[in-house]
Amino acid sequence: MQAIAALAAAAARIGGETPRLDAEVLLAHLLGCTRGDLLLRPDRSIDAQAYDILINRRAAGEPVAHITGRREFWSLDLIVSPAVLIPRPDSETLIEVALRLCRPPPARILDLGTGSGALLLAALSEWPAATGLGIDASPAALAVAQANARHTGLADRAAFRLGDWGAGLAERFDLVLANPPYIAENEPLSPEVRAHEPASALFAGADGLADYRRILPQLPGLLAPAGLALLEIGHTLGAALLALAAAQGLAAALYPDLAGRDRCVALRVPPLQPPA
Questions:
Q1: How many domains does the chain have?
Q2: Whole-angstrom distance, CA of residue 10 vs CA of residue 58
Q3: pLDDT at 7
Q4: Which CATH number does the domain housing residue 39 bear?
Q5: What percent of the chain stands above pLDDT 90?
Q6: Whether pLDDT at 276 is above 70
Q7: Within this chain, do residues 106 and 145 fall inside the same structural domain, yes or no?
Q8: What b/e readout covers 100-128, taking b as 16+ CB neighbours within 10 angstroms?
Q9: Can you tell me whether residue 144 is helix, strand or coil?
Q10: Whether residues 97 and 151 fall in one domain
Q11: Least confident interval from 14-18, 70-74, 172-176, 213-217
């Protein structure tokens, strides 16, 4: 079977929001080439039976990233597994904001709930002189993050440690990144995400704020003087995060994603005011 005919049939079977894209990514994965190479040679012959197996998995709701074992994030080719949250373009907002706000460049970076290591490795790719630490409560997630550090050539600058957010860390960091769980327990969620991604990386109590309530009080002890913390947030949580920050005495500002929705909260510890 030729690739062009297989793609049309596969997209019709997959359905959903991005059927043609999914079909192309899966076929490129099968052929061991890029999507660009595939589209330049749509007349090539393929193993229809092997492709059918991949399409059946996708049509049943399995994420493309789990089928291929890969996901691109900030131009990095990352390994993913069901042990970690699949990196999403929305999370790149944190790296974009960090590049705007970090002056001078950070020397030490902390990634809380590192998962695949996406945020930490993306930041290290932008600041070649920086080193970083990723913390996660899941040994399986840390194994993925360590594999990604090796795969991206950043293992000499990235360390990973089992931990519970920032608890027990004595070091202070110039930049703290985090994409904590922020989905309320009763919030609607697509069956694909609910069935295939780790609940511990998704759900955060009745209002989606449980983990922010733990992280924000830790920030004064984690941030170096003039340090910056950037946390991903659900797009409806901006006002709640500003209120939590104010209650902790933190200066806070919201930054939008490409769709214009609140996606990142930037937090700093205000300098001490001299006595009057």
A1: 2
A2: 10
A3: 86
A4: 1.10.8
A5: 74
A6: no
A7: yes
A8: eebeeebebbbbbbbbbbbbbbbbbbebe
A9: helix
A10: yes
A11: 14-18
Note down the domain range covering 213: 74-268
**CB 139 within 8 Å of CB 202:** no
In this prediction, residues 75-96 reach a mean pLDDT of: 95
For residue 91, what are its two tokens?
């999370």
Cβ-contact 118, 78 below 8 angstroms: yes
Are residues 37 and 103 located together in one domain of the fold? no
Between the CA of residue 238 and those of 7, 99, 210, 231, 270, what are the distances in Å? 41, 21, 15, 11, 20
Chain segment 147-182, per-residue pLDDT in tens: 999 999 999 999 999 999 999 999 999 999 999 998
124 belongs to a structural domain: yes
- Residues whose CB is less than 8 angstroms from the CB of residue 39 and which lie 6 or more positions away in sequence, other chains included: 24
DSSP state of 32: T
- 100 and 236 assigned to the same domain: yes
Q: Both tokens of residue 259? A: 């769709």
- Spell out the residues 6+ positions from residue 143 whose beta carbon is closer than 8 angstroms to its own: 83
Note whether 108 and 132 are within 8 A (CB).
yes
pTM, two decimals, is 0.91
47 and 83 in a common domain? no
Query: Are 38 and 88 in the same domain?
Result: no
Band (pLDDT 50/70/90 cuts) for residue 38 is confident
Q: Where are the alpha helices (DSSP H) in 156-258?
A: 191-196, 210-215, 219-222, 238-247
Asked whether residue 65 is domain-assigned, the answer is: no
In a domain, 274, yes or no: no
273: in domain: no
196 & 226 share domain: yes
Mutual angle of helices 92-101 and 118-126, in 10-degree steps: 40
**Rg from Cα positions in the chain:** 20
Backbone angles phi, psi at 134, to 5 degrees: -110, 135
